Amino acid sequence: MIKINFVEDGVWNFNPEKVAKTIAKVISKKEKIKGIHYISVIMVDGNEIHRLNKEYRNIDSETDVISFACIDDLENVKVKHGYPVELGDIFISTKHVINQADAYNHSVLREFAFLVAHGIYHLLGYDHMNEEDEKIMFAKQEEVLTKLKITRGQNE
């Protein structure tokens, strides 16, 4: 079971903490995650996501989401000896949630949910550095969002 610690920056017409927790619950079940795993989801502004991207990825621009994993490989995601596991932190740019929802012509809820799922899958060891890995990761994200009926093109 993945548990979410949520730090909010923004005003939403939905409960982002509840959405993040629901996504984590669905992913936990889908990926058969046993025991307690913690993730922090932190909403930040454009300046902060830019700073994080520059400092930790050496990329001098803003991005929509950055995940910082505490565990480097998927095999170690399993709880050992009953102790909780800190999977890592997900930083999401409030500005990008809003702008990308508009650009993709879907709801802010859909964009937020996509970025949360994306961040969680990164913390579980998935990536999109090549085409094959990207297909796998994005298919998993879409399965979760479809199960929750948070679909593309869905506008508020």
List keywords for this structure.
Collagenase (Catalytic Domain); 156 residues; alpha/beta; 5 helices; single chain
Describe this structure in words.
It is a single chain. This protein has one domain (2-147): Metalloproteases ("zincins"), catalytic domain (Collagenase (Catalytic Domain)). It has helices spanning 16-30, 46-57, 94-103, 108-123, 131-147, and strands spanning 2-7, 37-44, 65-69, 85-93. 31% of the residues are buried. The chain is of the alpha/beta class. It has a four-stranded mixed beta sheet. Helices cover 45% and strands 18% of the residues. The chain is globular, with a radius of gyration of 15 Å. Strand 1, helix 1 and strand 2 form a beta-alpha-beta unit. Helix 1 (16-30) packs across helix 4 (108-123), helix 3 crosses helix 4 (108-123) and helix 4 crosses helix 5 (131-147).
